Amino acid sequence: MDTLDTIFNHRSIRSYKTDAISKPILDNILEAAIRTSTTGNMQVYSIIVTQDEEKKKALHKIHFGQGMVLEAPLLLTFNADFNRFNKWCNQRNAVPGYDNFLSFFTAAIDALIAAQNATLAAEAQGLGVCYLGTTTYQAEKLIDIFNLPEGVVPVTTLVIGYAKDIPALVDRLPADAVVHYEEYKNYSADDIDRIYKDREALEETKKLLEENKLETLAQIFTQNRYPKAMNVDFSKLFLDVIKKQGFMNQ
Hints:
Layout: H1 3-8, H2 23-34, E1 45-50, H3 53-62, H4 68-71, E2 74-81, H5 83-91, H6 101-124, E3 128-132, H7 134-137, H8 139-146, E4 152-161, H9 189-201, H10 203-212, H11 217-225, H12 228-244
Antiparallel strand pairs: 1-2, 2-4, 3-4
C-alpha cells in the first residue's frame, strides 16, 4: 500500500478476527519499529510481544476489560527503557546519568515513535491497529506482569489484528487548527468557533449530547471522558511509577 494512503486511511480498529498473524508479517512490523528515528541512536525503548492466550487474558483484566485485547492475536507493549543502555554504560567504564525526568521523557518519545512506525507497518500489510491509553493508567500492574526492571516504564500498547468491522474515518480538525507557520499564532474566540464548528455540527456529536444530557461537546471531555479529578489521580499514580522505576531522582 502507498505510504500516504496508509496514513490517510488510518482507523482505530476495536473489533478483530482471531486469524493468526504470520511470522514474516510480525517480523516486518518489529523491524519497522526498530528502524524508527531515535535519540542519539540510543534506542532507549523496548517492545514486549504478547501472543499467548493466557497472558492476553491477564492483560484483558488490566486494560479495563476491553474485548479487543482478547480478540486480536497480537499485542505490542512499548516501554521507555534505559535499563539496557545503563547496563552497557556500566560494563564499558562509563557512568550513566539517566535517572532524571529528561531521560524518561527521551525514552518515552523513542517508544512512541517506534509504536507509530509499527502501526504504519501493520496497516500497510492489511492489519488493523488500536492504541491502548490504559497502558499509563495501569503501568504499575504491567510492570508486575511483565517483570520490568528498574529503568523500564510502559508507555503505550498496540492491539493488532485483522479487522472484523471497519469503522468510518473519524473526523479531524482542519489543518490551520494545528499548523503554525514561522511562529505560534494564538487563537481568537472567532478562530475557536470556526475550528470546532464542523465537529460540533456532526450528527454523532448531537447524539452524544442527547445521551449525556450536556450542552456542549467540550463538556463531554471535561466532565465525562477526561475529568480533572481522574487526570490528577492518574498523574500521581504514574509519577509514582516513574520514580519507583528509577527516574526523577535528580
